[in-house]
């Protein structure tokens, strides 16, 4: 969700596994909050990044340019006691897991599946791998 | 013996092919599924306020100030042209998730059914430009008839992004400007902004979305998870023939024989 190409969190020293969840439907802010709070309880989660369709704050073109957009799903949600400002209609989660062995990874993936099954009504696709950048590259040094 | 030509529209025997033919054929009267009032259609388009006079860009043709021209004598002007109305537009976005019609077939349908229109096709949207009073009649027809679905067809003048996005939890096509919302009590789609996202002073209901099973019978869209275009042999051969002729016509026109 960051405009910079640099990774959202500091390099862990090793490329950690990620769980990619792509939902079949775009989730409302309310559902996103429920999903994130369910994922928040799982251990070994190092960071969660989200993707989706952008919801502009103001009307960005046409005769109404500059008017407030007032999209009902562009709002602040509460995740584990922290306020998170949603700027997207969320359709994907990237959960980085700080695990050292396959056994723990499998266990955590099962927990994530359970959390998603209980909260994502219209289904999702779950894949384990590494999908995003985990340490800064030459480009990020150049951009600074 | 003179042979009479019978107009043909689209090949194929599959459901989307039949629907394409139906929508294009001006002799087929399309089913009316809802009744959005004319004033509400005018509000959603946002070109003028309901009840306001039409602005004109030239004097009425009846005043006789037109130059002497054989073509002008030949062509009967549409109502808006007679009165000198402005040219205004309506633009529809059609979701890839089995919307009743898609932009390219809209172009075919518009050109086949209406006079005096200018239409433009883009990947997910279709604009139609007509003289204002004729546009309003056409827009009402197109919102009321079976080519429109409240959830999968959007009336969007600008920023149309969403036709290829996943649907939201209520099954509505994504709209970053949220021109329409889901009314959970009535189970209907309600417009709260006009086509360029300027807030409306009243909520305009466009009715209940159709069930997916119904949409699959109404759609013109071939999809791998619906009717695959390759399963309709005639449609496939028609596409291949056009492709072959266009390609050969482009670089080896002398090899095109007997066509």
Task: Break the fold down into its secondary structure elements and pairings.
The complex is a heterodimer of chains A (144) and B (259).
Chain A: E1 18-23, H1 29-40, E2 45-54, E3 76-79, E4 82-85, E5 88-97, H2 102-119, E6 124-129, H3 138-143
Helix pairs in contact in A: 1-2
Chain B: H1 15-24, H2 38-45, H3 70-74, H4 79-83, E1 87-94, H5 103-113, E2 118-121, E3 125-131, H6 132-144, E4 153-155, E5 180-183, E6 188-193, E7 199-207, H7 212-218, H8 233-251
Antiparallel strand pairs in B: 1-3, 1-4, 2-3, 5-6, 6-7
How does this model look, in words?
The complex is a heterodimer of chains A (144) and B (259). Chain A has one domain: Alpha-Beta Plaits. Helices cover 25% and strands 28% of the residues of chain A. Chain A has helices at 29-40, 102-119, 138-143, and strands at 18-23, 45-54, 76-79, 82-85, 88-97, 124-129. In chain A, helix 1 packs antiparallel against helix 2 (102-119). The two termini of chain A are 18 Å apart. The mean pLDDT of chain A is 92. Chain B is of the alpha+beta class. Chain B has 2 domains: 15-227, Alpha-Beta Complex (Lambda Exonuclease, Chain A), CATH 3.90.320; 229-259. Chain B is built from 8 helices and 7 strands. Chain B has helices spanning 15-24, 38-45, 70-74, 79-83, 103-113, 132-144, 212-218, 233-251, and strands at residues 87-94, 118-121, 125-131, 153-155, 180-183, 188-193, 199-207. In chain B, the strands form 2 sheets. In chain B, strands 2-3-1-4 form a 4-stranded antiparallel beta sheet. Chain B has a 3-stranded antiparallel beta sheet with strand order 5-6-7, covered by helices on one side. The longest helix of chain B is centred in the C-terminal third of the chain and has 19 residues, at 233-251. The mean pLDDT of chain B is 94. The A-B interface holds A 23-28, 31, 53-56, 59-64, 67, 69-73, 89, 91, 121-122 and B 157-159, 161-162, 165-169, 171, 174, 176-178, 181, 196-199.
